Amino acid sequence: MSEFALITLLAGALGLIAIGIAGTLLSRNLYRILLALSVAESGGNLLLVLVGFRRDAIAPIVEPGRALLTMVDPIPQAMVLTSIVIGVGVQALALAMAIRARNSYGTLDMDVMQARMENDIVGAAGAMPATSQEKPAGGRPLPPPLADDGEPPRLAFKELKS
Amino acid sequence: MIALVPALPLLVAFLLPLMPALPRRLAGPLTLLAIAGIGVKLVGTTFAQPVVLAVGDYAPPLGITFYADAVSGVFVLAVALVTLLLWPWTAARGAEENLVRKQTLTLIVAAACGGLAVSGDLFNVYVFYELAAVACYGLAAGIRTAAAQVATFRFVVVGSVGSLLTLIGITLIYFRAGTVNMAHLAELAPQTLHDPLGLTAFLLILLGVGVKAELFLVNTWAPEVYATAEARVSALLAGLVSKLALLVLVRLLILVFPLPEARQIVLVLGMLGILSGEFAAFRARDMRRMLAWSSIGQLGAAFVAFAIPGPAGPMAGLAIALHHLVVKPTLFLLAERWGGSLDQLAGAARRSPIGAALFVLFALSLLGVPPLPGFWAKYLLLTALAAQPAGIWWLAGFVVLLTTAVEATYLFRFIGALYRRAGPADAQTGYAVAGGGVFAATLIAAALAAPLLAAPFGRMASQMADTAAYVARVLPAPAQSGVAP
Fold it and tell me: What is the ipTM score, two decimals?
């Protein structure tokens, strides 16, 4: 493999990691977050394989009756197998979580989900949602004012859930 | 024997779903008792000399190495006992199938935590860390409320990004040093890793493993998960798993990166953790999130302590970490019934006086009121910080003192609410009171034995801080320096 190809691969690995992490942080859609995570993990795995690369080397398999040639470093290859397996498992788990979350809240938008989760947590605790004292421009969407009988406020989004 | 610490619970965990009813009930607790026995034995032997095991007789730095010093022994014991106290004994009606899953996952958490305590190489640390992480995701999602699912999803995403950063960090370290064995790394670090690339690797691992240790910047999941998950799961995560992640980072800091720059990074992140955690806890109006934020603050204090060079730092850090390990689980157990808002706590002390008394005891210890162990932990931290040259270390001391005042304010707000007369509060569960009682007994015993504990603590800390002894124990013959090209 030429110098150029090696540098391209290295840049590719770092680029995949950067794209993936940026996507994870910036996406709002749950499925896109997962895809971005998968891209970032591929980048990490590629980087790991590249670390063990040797010029003009063969795959690290020792066969009887064959001359021992220079091999690529087998340790990163063993590590990358582990990391791929772990990655697949975690992605499947995250996908299952995403499906469950989608079924309960009826949306894949992370911002909406987070707002509803906050509401649910506060509602379950029976506390007032955290709000600022100043009224934001364009009115305050959350939460509705305290009822006259002193009950905790009816929570926004509750009606959407049913 | 050390190999059993992760191996035995793992084996039992995967056999558990196949067992008939009666053995299944006993298998988990008995396994944990066995691990506790191993922990006791390890504590007994490792104070004199650390134990090293080369799996499959491949001499280090090749192969897999397990290393147990006194700190590992204490943590193995703590893993077994805390998991046993937080064991899911019974399930809600109609959820018996779920119970087996929860028990399996809890055993896997115990196995992975034990593995983290005794691992002697970075890649095993990564594998055990992932194992603990995945089992924690499963436990956090154990409640089928919508909020818990979303919180767990966000936890999984943060955790996976953290794992990726850890893996990249380990890759960089392997690229530079050509080994992942901790002792070998400690030996090679001065030539290969004490440069900007090495520090980058440390920072990546710090942020990655820091996810579970509730390090500042990557702890956003904690308040959400602790507020939605079962009380026992929150107690396990905040009490146990965070400490093991902390232990891994501390070993890396002491053995491989004993650099002023690395210490400063840990110190600053720890300080930010204390400030953000304690002030957010001050704003919290419900008990669960108050506890979640306060545990972020406490772990920040532990990070600050471990950043201090010399044996004084690990000593203070160990005191804070072990104290928090005893205190937080009980508070989370009590929050199972009292997790609601401040207003709903009125009258709680009348319904269950023992529960309220436990809360007061642990809150006072958390604050650092003199006879209780929390006082010694904070005292060690402040004296260690004051012994450092003025500047950022003294600033850290000031931050600790300032946040203690903040802590007092919000904890007494909750204590006040507990002792308000007549109100709607629920009575405490018997299990929470019993479990809390065990932890309280530990705490009081530690308070009474404080003068006796100083010597073993100092021994543990100096053993942990002694890099040369670690290397000499794992690599008796000078290892051939196999630096990768």
Answer: 0.82
Write down the mean pLDDT value for chain A.
79
- Chain B residues touching A34 at Cβ < 8 A: 157
Please state the rounded mean pLDDT for residues A68-91: 86
Return the closest-CA partner of residue B153 out of B170, B143, B166, B140. B140
Start-end of H helices in B121-240: 122-140, 146-177, 182-192, 196-209, 221-228, 231-236
Which residues are B181's β-sheet partners?
B121
Residues above pLDDT 90, as percent of chain B? 31
Query: In Å, how far from its chain's centre is CA A11?
Result: 22
Instruction: Please name the amino acid found at residue B474.
Output: V
CB B184 within 8 A of CB A154: no
pTM, 2 dp: 0.88
Rounded-to-integer distance, Cα B308 and Cα B315, Å? 10
Average confidence (pLDDT) over B349-356? 82
- What is the four-CA torsion angle of B460, B463, B464, B469, rounded to 10 degrees? -160
Question: Is B101 in CB contact (< 8 Å) with chain A?
Answer: no
Encode pLDDT of B432-445 as tens digits: 788 888 888 888 88
CB environment A91-124: b (16+ within 10 A), e (fewer): bebbebbbebbbebbeebebeebebbbbbbbbbb
What is the spatial distance between Cα B397 and Cα B401, in angstroms, rounded to a whole number?
Answer: 6
- State the smallest CA–CA distance between residue A41 and chain B in angstroms: 6
DSSP-derived letter for residue B17 is G
Nearest residue, CB atoms, A94 vs list B156, B180, B485:
B156
* One-letter amino acid for residue B72 of the chain: S
Hey, are the CB atoms on A105 and B163 less than 8 Å from each other?
no
Decide if B147 and A117 are in contact by the 8 Å CB cutoff: yes
Q: In the block, which residue shows the tokens 């201090």? A: B308
Q: Percent of chain B beyond pLDDT 70?
A: 96
Nearest one of B357, B350, B305, B351 to B330, comparing CA atoms: B357
Quick check: B332 contacting A, CB < 8 Å?
no
What would the pLDDT profile of B209-256 be if each residue is shown by its tens digit? 999 888 888 888 888 898 888 888 999 999 899 999 999 999 999 988
Query: For residue A95, what is the nearest residue in chain B, using CA coordinates?
Result: B153
* Short-list B222, B171, B35, CA closest to B114: B35
- List the structure tokens of B364: 């006072």
On chain A, the residues whose CB falls within 8 A of the CB of B211 are: none
Among candidate residues B43, B25, B32, the one with its CA nearest the CA of residue B10 = B32
Among B152, B164, B283, beta carbon nearest to A40: B164
Asked, as a colleague might, if the bond just before B61 is cis with ω within 30 of 0, I would say yes
| Rounded Cα distance, B188 and B176, in Å | 10
> How confident is the model over B120-138, as a mean pLDDT?
90
Tens of pLDDT, residue by residue over B57-74, are 777 777 788 888 888 999
Residue B126's nearest CA partner among A21, A76, A13 is A76
Indicate yes or no: CB of A126 within 8 angstroms of CB of B224: no
